[in-house]
Amino acid sequence: MQIQISLRAPNGQSRIQIDDESTLQELVELIKSKTELSNFTLKYGYPLRSLDISAPLLGTGIKDLNLRGETIVVAKLDAAPPAPTTQAASTQPTPKPFTPKGIEPDETSLEWPERGGYIGRSLLLRVMPDDNSCMFTAFGGAIGLENPSRILRDQVAEYILNHPDQYTDAILGDNPQRYTTRMRQMDTWGGAIELSILSDIYNLEISSIDVKSLRVDRFGEGKTNRVIILYSGIHYDRIAFCMDLSYPIEVDETRWATDDDAVLEKALELAQRLQRLHYYTDTTDFVIKCELCNWIGQGTKEAAQHERETGHSQFGELSIE
């Protein structure tokens, strides 16, 4: 059986397929071929954790690693470290991942000592899992919800059904009952309609920065506080501020006053660096495949039309070599 894995690497985002009977060695070789890198570290999961690709583990079957549907972040190492002796292994520090312009894609950050006056304080990108619930996870984590996708999907659905004059067939592009039934399913993407509703429910402005265009879409303008998320074409991540990169994600600052222009400017600076790394998918012409019926189309408009016609909502980007 084939499993799909998303890759985030210095040369952009992509998807790979590999047989679930393959070994970790075969996965590493496939990643080398896809990214054109020979020396790298791998991280996956949420929060991100290292995938050990040291020689003793390369024979491990990937079925045992539970990587189906995961996103693996590939961070380039600038030089292959020499093979350590047993003694050196306990004292030599782990090589620091390196990517263009010093940006680490797994936890991209900008130092911001001016905010609070301490060195080490940073505005950073918290990468969300690629599980079709990234928008709900990005926002829900910012307001401190556990299991945010389930909670927020139900709240959005109830809000739509309780406001029939506002959320009509014309606005939703479908019958409200069918629309909300799909939105409650964990594999359905959320977007602008859901962000607008969540802004009303939680009385927060949601500022969504588009990496490709650097446009800021503000949902709920005029509210007192905001959260900031980052949109990269088919994926949402969260913007956060932390006092030290070694601190756990639970102590992040993720809400700011809407008159705090400095944090939005800093977030745009971070988005500019991500744009230079091509940390986005161009949704106008990328090739997309339905995971349920193998339909293939182009761009999110065709995907939305396919979803309306069939009810299918599990899509993946199809790489054309």
From TrEMBL:
It is found in: Cytoplasm. It catalyses: Thiol-dependent hydrolysis of ester, thioester, amide, peptide and isopeptide bonds formed by the C-terminal Gly of ubiquitin (a 76-residue protein attached to proteins as an intracellular targeting signal). The keyword Nucleus does not apply. Keywords: Cytoplasm, Hydrolase, Metal-binding, Protease, Thiol protease, Ubl conjugation pathway, Zinc, Zinc-finger. Residues 81-111 are annotated as: Disordered. GO terms for biological process: endoplasmic reticulum unfolded protein response; ERAD pathway; protein deubiquitination. One of its GO terms (molecular function) is zinc ion binding. Its EC number is 3.4.19.12. It is an enzyme of class 3 (hydrolase). GO terms for cellular component: cytosol; nucleus. Residues 123-242 form the OTU domain. The keyword Coiled coil does not apply. Its main location: cytoplasm. Hydrolase that can remove conjugated ubiquitin from proteins and may therefore play an important regulatory role at the level of protein turnover by preventing degradation. This is Ubiquitin thioesterase OTU.
